[in-house]
Amino acid sequence: MRFHSDGPDIPNELVAVQERGDIVFICGAGVSMTVGLPSFRKLVEDIYSDLGDGWSSHVAEADGMDTKAYDRVVRSLERRLGGDDGKSVQRVREQIRAAVNKALAPPATALDAHYDILTLSRDSELRNRLVTTNFDTLFERAWIAKKGASNPIKSHAGASMPGPLAAGFTGVMHLHGRVTDEELKLEESDLVLTSAEFGEAYLRSGWATRYIYDLVRATTVVIVGYTADDPPMRYLLEVIDADRERFKDLRPVYAFVAHDPDDSAKQCTLWKSKGAIPIPYETPTGTDHSKLYATLGVWARYAEDPTKWRGARMMELLAQPPEVATVAQLEEVKWLLSHADAGGNLGATNPSPDWMRKFSELGALRDSPPMLFWPWVIKNLENPAMIEACADCAAIKQEFFRALTFELSRRPDKIGKLNATAWHVLIRTRTEDASDWMNATFEAKRRLSAGDSSFGAVDALRGALRPHSLVRRVFRYGAKGNDAPPTKIGDILTVEFHAEVEQAGQQEFSALVRAVPQDANVEFSIIDNLLRMLMDSLDDAADSGFISPQYDRASHQIPSIAPHGQNEYSRGFYPVVRVIADLWERAANRDNKRGRKYAPWCLDQKYVLLNRLGLHFLTYNGVHDGAEAAEALKALSNSLFWNQARREQMKLTAERWNDFPQELRDALEARIIAGPPLGEA
User: Fold this and answer.
1) Which secondary-structure segment (H or E) carries 473?
2) How far is the first Cα of the chain from the last one, in angstroms, to the nearest whole number?
3) Average pLDDT of the segment spanning 367-379
C-alpha cells in the first residue's frame, strides 16, 4: 500500500498487522535527526568537541571513526582519558554523559514524525508502545505536545523496562538508556554507549538480547531510522537472525531502507542478509527522508480511523474514470476492496458502473465476498449501465444474483419494466448450476446406449441439447457508443445461446440419435420431451430479446432444418432441432400414424423455428399426403412463405409438387407468380 505517491510501498500484510494492533516500531537516530538532533557519528564528534579533544592522532579511535564503529571509539576515548584510575574513569564517563545530554537537548520544533510513529506503534487495546535506541526524550515530548501535560506517556529505560509479554508493556522503551529531561521530570538512566556497554547488554549479561528475542517472538517489529551498518543494528539484527534458525515462532522484522536512485538493490540485499524484510524508499539527495515521514504521517491518519480513511480515499480514487487511473492507483483500489468495510464504502461512493469491469480485471470480484458490491449495485438497479457492467463480469458470484431476485420484486415501479426484464435475463444465466448439465452428452450417450430410457437418462439428453443463454455487454463503436436511452433488451445486453453438446462437435448429434433405443414408444416420448424443452428455450429467447418481431435469431442461425453443409457452424438451437428432426424421421418410419401429429402442432406455434420444423416433417411423403402438405403451404403467412421459412417452403414445394392436388398446385402457382405483396416479405 503506497500511502504517499512518492513514498515507500508498505506491504499490505504489514498494514493489516498494524490495524490488528500487533506491531512495535524500533526507532533509531534517523527519526530524531529530522528535527536536528545528531546521528551517532555526529554525537561522537560533539563529545570530542565538548571535551576539547580529537581522534585523528589516536590510531584506535581514528580507525573506529573510519569503520563507523562509534561505540568502540567512545570506549577507546574513555580508556585513554581515564587511564587505570577508577576515579578518573568515572570523571571522564560523567563528562561524556554530560556532553551527550548537551548534544541531545530537545529542539523547539514540532515533533510530528515522532507522534506519527507512536500512533502507529500500538497494541490491540490501543495502548501505544515503542522501542528506541535513542537517548533523547522526543517521543515523550511529542506525546505531551498532542495529548497535554496532564496525560503523559510512560517512559522506561534499560534493563528495568517491562518485557514485551508483560501487562505493563506500554509507553516509550529506551533500550539503550535515556538522558535527563527536567521539564518532563525524567531522570537519566544508564546508557549503552560504548562497546563495553554494548557487550554487557548483548553478550555478557545479555539482557538486551533476551529483550529483543522476546519482542520478536511477541509481535511484528518495524525498524525505522537506521542504516544497515549502524552499531545498534549489528547487535539487534544479528541476535534476531541467529535465533530465527532455531526458533520458528519469531515474527517477521521489517525495515525501512533508504537508498539513492541507483542503489535500491544493494541496500535491500544488505538488510535481507541481516534477516529483515526491506521496505525501500528513495532519498534523492541522500539526506532527504521526507518521503518516508510523509508516508508514516498518512499511515498514522489511516490508523486513527481506518474505515473513515478508506471511505474517503475510495471516494477520491473512484471519482475519476477507470481508464485514467494509474497502475499504482488501481493497486490501491484493489487493496481498498479487500477490507470488510469495502461494501459500505463502495455504496457510499457510488462510482460509475464503468468501474465494475476494472474491478473484475483487478481480480477483486474473484477474491471478494459474494455480497461486497451489493450496496453499490442496489443503488443502480434502474441504471442500464449497471446491468451491462454486471453482465460483463463473469466473476460475480451466484449468491449475489440469487439475492437480487428478491430485491427486484420489492421495487418494480422504480426499476422499470425493461430494466427489470434485463436483470431477470442476467440472473437466469448466472444462477444456473453448470454442474447440472456439464458432461451431459457423455452421460446421455452412456445411459441411452445401455437401453436406459428413464427420466434421468432423458434429462441428461435434455441437458446436452438444451440451449443455455449466455449474456455479455453490448458492443458499441467508439468510446461510449450511442447514449440514447435503451428501448429493448438488445440495447442493454447481448444474449447468445449455446448447447453443451456443441463442445463435442456435430458428429455427436447423430451419435445421440443412435443411442436412443430402437423403440417407438421411447422415441416419441423423447421427441415430446425435447419439443417441450425447445418451446421453453424459445420462450426464454423471446424474453431475452434473442427473438423479436424484427429479428428471430434462433431461426436465423439455422440455415436449413434438413441436413445441409451450411449448418456446419450452426450452434445454439441447432443441436436440439437436428436431433428432433432425425429422431422423428426414424420414429415416423416405424409408426406413420403417431408421426403425423407433429407437423400440425409445429405449424400452429408462434415461433418460426417450430413452423420450419413442421414444414420439414411434411416433406416426408410416407407420413403426410400431398393434400395435407399443400394446404399447409397455402396457409403460410407471407412472411413465412417468402422469407422466414423460405428454405423449407421451397424444399417442400419441389419435393412434393407432384403429390399436390391440381387445384392446390394452381393456387400455389398463382401465389408464386404474383410474388410477395409489396412491403410484406
Assistant:
1) strand 468-473
2) 64
3) 87
Please report the sign of the dihedral spanned by the C-alpha atoms of residue 102, residue 103, residue 105, residue 107.
Answer: positive
Mapped to the 3 state alphabet, what secondary structure does 142-158 carry? HHHHHHCCCCCCCEEEH
Among residues 245, 262, 481, which one has the least CA distance to residue 354? 481
According to DSSP, the residues that pair with 27 across neighbouring strands are 132, 224
For residue range 387-415, list pLDDT tens digits in order: 999 988 878 888 888 888 888 888 777 88
- Kindly report, residue by residue over 622-669, the tens digit of the pLDDT: 899 999 999 999 999 999 999 999 999 999 999 999 999 999 999 999
Residue 182 CA from chain centroid, whole number: 54
Could you tell me if 144 and 110 are in contact, meaning their C-beta atoms sit under 8 angstroms apart? Answer: no
Taking 90 as the threshold, does the pLDDT of residue 318 lie above it?
yes
Cell of 433: 448450476
120, 167, 171, 626 from 128: Cα distances, Å: 8, 13, 6, 97
- Greatest alpha-carbon pair distance for the chain in Å reads 141
Q: Which amino acid is at 249?
A: D
In this structure, the strands spanning 220-224 and 253-259 are parallel
| DSSP class of 106 | P
Query: pLDDT at residue 356 above 70?
Result: yes
Residue 321, amino acid? P
Is 367 in a helix, a strand, or coil?
helix
- Half-sphere CA count of 503, side-chain side, radius 13 A: 12
pTM greater than the 0.85 cutoff: no
Which amino acid, residue 549? P
Q: What angle do CA 246, 129, 126 make, to 5 degrees?
A: 110
Tens digit of each residue's pLDDT (9 = 90 or more) over 495-532: 999 998 887 778 889 999 999 999 999 999 999 999 99
Residue 104 · residue 37 · CB < 8 Å: yes
**CB distance 131 to 27 below 8 Å:** yes
